[in-house]
Design brief:
- The complex is a heterodimer.
- By secondary structure, chain A is mainly alpha-helical.
- Chain A has one domain: MetI-like fold (Orthogonal Bundle).
- Helix content of chain A is 81%, strand content 0%.
- In chain A, helix 2 packs across helix 6 and helix 3 runs antiparallel to helix 5.
- Chain B is of the alpha/beta class.
- Chain B folds into 2 domains: 126 residues, 3-Layer(aba) Sandwich (D-Maltodextrin-Binding Protein, domain 2); 114 residues, D-Maltodextrin-Binding Protein, domain 2 (3-Layer(aba) Sandwich), CATH 3.40.190.
- Chain B is 46% helix and 22% strand.
- In chain B, the strands form 2 sheets. In chain B, strands 1, 2, 3, 4, 5, 6, 7, 8, 9 and 12 form a 10-stranded mixed sheet that branches. In chain B, strands 10-11 form a two-stranded antiparallel ribbon.
- In chain B, strand 10 and strand 11 form a beta hairpin.
- Chain B is globular.
- Classes of the chains: A mainly alpha, B alpha/beta.
């Protein structure tokens, strides 16, 4: 049990000291994961809503695929993005491997299916109510999507938070495409993995506590936005 | 429309937040001149790079970005052209890398040594032995647990070679007393500490490793436990984007008097971790 108390002490000490290396790692974690979440929302929300709202051939197959892809293993995503961005890969000329951009790309691939699949289910449930109304209004496809997405916005906020949770907690993908390079691509999860492999378990656990605190802050901010929006 | 505004606002908010975080971080990272070095976990985890790289960067203005993997993985990375310099520890693989045209010229840099660590109780009674082959044979005969890296790293390859010398077929014992965990040095030691097993570790990682539990060094000092490191530039003729000049500058610095001194100066608790030997013929 000594490890746990020492982990809390370590976490507390790091936060109070405002350790510059830690600040940089936290900043990069937030930057990478929030950017990935933003891009995933941009792609996943309209995609999920479109699959729910429009009839097209292969729709059930697409739904099944989105649901399946929610379970993409981060390591596999990392490996695929790595092979694409490697100098010997199709996009190697861009020189993006071992940069934060590569990490954003990997996390986006990882969470687009989560955002899209959950959005699809939410919007499909809404369609029961709104289908007739939208038809009577004669709404075009863009208008339809906007109406549905904004009606479901509070549920979708949770969807986006689920995406953020997955992005900020995964280590497999960013480890492979980022390389865990100090001051360049080291984020919270890869730092935790590194300290674990050095056998510094209290420090690793302390970083874990800080990561959870960050996650709590983001979710708290979202809850406040929701409260303000509903009032 | 109110609702559309809400959606736009949310998206803009997210973008602003992302931008906010990207600005300062980008600023802090903006070092234009850098090379990527594919190296091993032993050099990174032991703290060697943290100690010597600032000296090189200060002198040349070249930032060194280290990607630390097992030797096998590091070589694979370099073969794809994803690193400018390769700095690993398995001479046969390094020479093959150069012979296949992926590397320019391998230079010996330093050595450290492997140690056999195990539980204080020492069920195989190998403590104090200077004969690693005999010790391994005893461990196998007593069927005491042994945790192997199993990750195609330099340490793993050396371990397999030592088992061969000892005349033990570990492939057959795998899953029984021989446990191949397929992980880096640190996680392997974590496992060995947790189950009270023997393991082969490089001394550098062992000295800086904090979660030792009941483990201690039992076998050391056998010549066959020496572990040579080599460095080489990835062939710019093979990959156009390789930063040949800056990469070669790093290689040359490591084997120069200055670089060799920086390596010798790195100690933990007064114990040196790596011994420079760039001038030793045939190393």
């Amino acid at each position: 049990m000594h490890e746990f108390s020492s982990a809390f002490a370590t976490a507390f000490r790091l936060i109070v000291a405002f350790d510059p290396t830690l600040v940089q790692i936290v900043g990069l974690s937030l930057r990478v994961s929030l950017t990935a979440v933003f891009l995933s929302a941009l792609i996943g929300l309209p995609l999920g809503a479109a699959v729910a709202a429009f009839r097209f051939p292969g729709r059930r197959a697409v739904t099944l695929m989105l649901n399946t892809l929610m379970g993409l293993p981060p390591v596999v995503v990392g490996l695929i993005v790595y092979l694409i961005l490697s100098r010997s890969g199709p996009l190697g000329v861009l020189g993006l491997l071992f940069t934060p951009t590569a990490m954003v790309a990997a996390q986006t691939v990882l969470i687009v299916p989560i955002v899209a699949a959950l959005t699809r289910q939410t919007v499909e449930d809404l369609m029961v109510e709104y289908d007739d109304l939208l038809r009577v209004m004669g709404a075009g496809p863009v208008r339809t999507l906007f109406t549905l997405l904004s009606e479901a916005r509070w549920t979708l906020l949770t969807t986006v938070l689920a995406g953020f949770g997955r992005a900020s907690a995964e280590v497999g993908a960013v480890m492979i495409v980022g390389g865990n390079i100090e001051h360049v691509t080291r984020v919270m999860t890869t730092a935790i993995a590194l300290e674990t492999s050095k056998g510094d378990l209290p420090l690793a656990l302390g970083l874990g506590i800080i990561l959870m605190t960050l996650s709590l802050t983001v979710n708290l901010a979202a809850a406040l936005v929701r409260e303000a929006g509903r009032a | 429309m109110l609702r559309r505004n809400f959606l736009t606002r949310t998206l803009l908010g997210c973008a602003a937040l992302a931008a906010l975080f990207s600005a300062p971080v980008n600023g802090a990272l903006a070092q234009e001149r850098f090379i990527v070095v594919a190296s091993t976990t032993s050099t990174e985890d032991s703290g060697l790079f943290k100690s010597i790289l600032p000296k090189f960067t200060q002198k040349t203005g070249i930032e060194v970005r280290v990607v630390a993997k097992g030797t096998g993985q590091a070589i694979d990375l370099a073969k794809r052209g994803d690193a400018d310099v390769l700095f690993v520890h398995h001479k046969p693989s390094e020479e093959k890398f150069v012979a296949e045209g992926f590397g320019v010229e391998r230079k010996p840099v330093m050595y450290n040594d492997f140690v056999v660590v195990g539980p204080k109780a020492d069920p195989a009674k190998v403590k104090g032995s200077k004969d690693v082959a005999a010790s391994l044979k005893q461990i196998a005969e007593s069927k005491a647990s042994f945790v192997s890296r199993g990750d195609d790293s330099g340490t793993h390859k050396s371990e397999l070679a030592l088992w061969k010398t000892a005349g033990v077929d570990v492939a057959q014992a795998s899953g029984g007393w021989y446990r191949s965990v397929g992980q880096g040095m640190g996680p392997t030691l974590n496992t060995a500490a947790a189950v009270g097993a023997y393991a082969l570790a490089d001394r550098g990682t062992w000295l800086s490793f904090k979660n030792r539990g009941d483990l201690e060094v039992l076998v050391e000092g056998d010549k066959r436990l020496f572990n040579q490191y080599g460095v080489m530039l990835v062939n710019p003729a093979k990959f156009q984007h390789i930063k040949a000049k800056d990469g070669q500058a790093f290689v040359d610095w490591l084997v120069s008097g200055e670089g060799q001194k920086a390596i010798a100066d790195y100690t933990i608790g007064g114990q040196p971790l790596f011994f420079p030997n760039a001038n030793e013929p045939g190393a």
